[in-house]
Design brief:
Elements: H1 11-19, H2 35-47, E1 58-67, H3 76-79, E2 86-92, E3 97-104, E4 107-114, E5 117-122, E6 125-126, H4 130-148, E7 158-168, E8 171-180, E9 190-197, E10 203-209, E11 220-226, E12 229-231, E13 234-236, E14 239-246, E15 250-262
């Protein structure tokens, strides 16, 4: 298992972390979808409002987040806490081009992620650091999944299998294992377990591998979704809580969605690589979150 850390842990703490290691996502070979698993994902997509009639072309969001004190130290390149605090993000559908403008104590980080390519700049200066670019691609892809929820898995190269059941925030959920080829960022494959609430079919949590970076191969995290709000026909999570689950159990990151708009009408040319332009440039409006949470 590969997992880098800049810390030299005392023996007692290291033993504690080792004792918290949880069972890893199944590595069994899956070449085709199990019909019941694919049906569950389809029902979840419908429950979230992702129907064929939806005409959303772009999504504009803003987030604010807080990092845990210890967890991010085990994945420093991925967390990039000096630059990743709050963010303004733009997503084009159906091409899934994602642009992110992160803000942190060290300044601004801009990421433009499109299929097969990623551009990263820090405080306006392009970065040619290969590991930083791989990490940025992984994060952009993962945040596309967190935002789109079950609709993210309506893409080529995904097979589904049943993965037992679990309780998330006191809700009984059915698990679906999604095998993604390619995976997040530059990974050849990643695996995600979707925890779909049995009664409502809402996606309450995902647990995912992080194979897009050499330093995090073998690691797993989960993100729990809370405080759903229906905006423009789609049920969006507005509260996100991330924990490292393998190789140990630690809190990593908590963030909230501050604003969300759909179909501003911008294009890829408005997304960079130097920053937002045109209809993509204005900060995300807050009134869109006036709907009651559910």
């Amino acid at each position: 298992m590969k997992y880098s850390t800049p810390l030299i842990l005392p023996a007692a703490l290291a033993a504690l972390l080792t004792s918290c290691t949880s069972v890893q996502i199944s590595k069994r070979e899956i070449t085709r979808s199990e019909p019941s698993a694919a049906t569950l994902v389809s029902l979840s997509q419908r429950a979230h409002g992702w129907k064929s009639s939806i005409q959303i072309r772009d999504v504009t969001v803003s987030y604010d987040g807080r990092w845990a004190s210890l967890g991010p130290k085990f994945q420093p390149v991925l967390a990039d806490t000096k630059f990743r605090g709050g963010s303004e993000e733009r997503l084009l559908l159906p091409s899934r081009v994602m642009a992110q403008e992160h803000s942190g104590p060290a300044g601004k980080k801009f990421v433009l992620r499109e299929p097969g390519n990623v551009a990263v700049s820090y405080n306006g200066k392009p970065s040619d650091n290969a590991e930083a670019r791989k990490a940025a691609a992984l994060v952009a892809d993962a945040y596309t999944m967190f935002l789109m929820g079950p609709a993210y898995f309506n893409r080529p190269g995904v097979v589904f299998a049943r993965a037992g059941e679990a309780v998330v925030d006191k809700a009984v959920c059915d698990g679906v294992l999604a095998v993604l080829r390619p995976g997040f960022g530059e990974a050849k494959e990643d695996r995600v377990i979707l925890y779909i609430e049995r009664s409502t079919k809402e996606l309450r949590r995902v647990r995912m591998t992080l194979n897009g970076l050499e330093s995090t191969q073998g690691a797993e995290v989960d993100v729990t979704f809370r405080d759903f709000r229906r905006i423009d026909g789609i049920l969006w999570p507005t509260d996100f809580d991330e924990r490292i689950r393998v190789p140990f159990d630690l809190h990593a990151h908590h963030w909230k969605l501050l604003g969300l708009e759909t179909s501003r009408g911008y294009s890829k040319s408005d997304l960079g690589p130097a920053g937002f332009k045109g209809r993509a440039s204005a900060p995300t409006a807050l009134p869109a979150l006036s709907a009651k949470p559910r």
